[in-house]
Amino acid sequence: MTKIIGLTGGIGSGKTTIAQYFKSLDIPVYIADEEAKKLLDNPIIQDRIKVVFGETIIEKDKVSREKLASIVFQNPQKLSALNAIIHPAVKEHFQNWLTQHQNNPIVIKEAAILFESGSYQDCDKIITVVAPLETRIERVIARDKTTKDDVLNRIKNQWADEMRIAKSDFIIDNNDLSSAKLQVDKILKKLTNP
User: Averaged over 4-24, what is the pLDDT?
Assistant: First the structure.
C-alpha cells in the first residue's frame, strides 16, 4: 500500500524546493497550495466564496487572490471560512490523485497548513522543513515582492515551527540546499527500508 508522506513547513522554509527534489527522484508529489489555487477557478467554489466575501472578490471571472489574501490574513474568522470552502475540495482532489499513484511505494503531500487543515491525519509520516526566521522573511520578500510586515502577518497565521516539529517524524533544516538534500536522502532510506 502507498505510504503518504506529509511535507510541511512555514512560509519561506523552502518546502516547495524540497518537494521539487523529491520529484527529481521520481517520487510523485502533490502540491496542495497549487491545487487549491486551481480550485479557485471552479465555478462552484467561486459561488461559495462570493457568499462569504461578496461579489467584488470576483474580477474577470476569477477570484482576486490579492483581495482574498488581504482579507484573510487580517481576519482569522474569514481565513477559517475560506479554509472551510477550500480544504474539503482539496481533500477530494488529493484522493483522486492518490488513486492514480497507488502503485508507488510512497507519495509526498506538500501542504503549508498540513496540521492546521487536519490533513496530517491522512499521512503515514510527516516531514517538517525549517529555516531561520530571517532567511524565511528574505525568501518570501524576494519571491512575492512583498514587505516584511506582510510576511510576518502571514507567519503569524501559521503554526510555529515548535508546534510542527512536535508532531513530525522527520525535520529538515533547509538553511543550505545541498545539506537539505542529504537530509532528504537519509529520510528516504528510512522510509523505503523500514
Answer: 96
Q: Which helix (H) or strand (E) holds 24?
A: helix 15-24
User: Could you please report the per-residue DSSP string of 116-184?
Assistant: TTSGGGG-SEEEEEE--HHHHHHHHHHHHT--HHHHHHHHHTS--HHHHHHT-SEEEETTSHHHHHHHH
User: Per the structure, how many domains does the chain have?
Assistant: 1
Range of the domain at 121: 3-188
* Half-sphere exposure in the Cβ direction for 119 (13 Å, CA): 29
Task: Lowest mean pLDDT of 20-24, 102-106, 114-118, name the range.
Answer: 114-118
Q: Within a domain: residue 69?
A: yes
- Joined together, the cell numbers standing for residue 47 give 459561488
Please give the average per-residue pLDDT across 27-51, as a whole number: 94
For range 80-108, the mean pLDDT: 94
Residue 193 lies in a domain: no
58: domain CATH number? 3.40.50.300
Q: Are 127 and 6 in contact (CB under 8 A)?
A: yes
pLDDT band at 194 (very low <50, low <70, confident <90, very high): low
Asked if residues 93 and 41 have their Cβ atoms less than 8 Å apart, the reply is no
How many of the other CB atoms lie within 10 Å of CB of 81? Answer: 18
pLDDT at 4 over 80: yes
Say if 194 falls within a structural domain: no
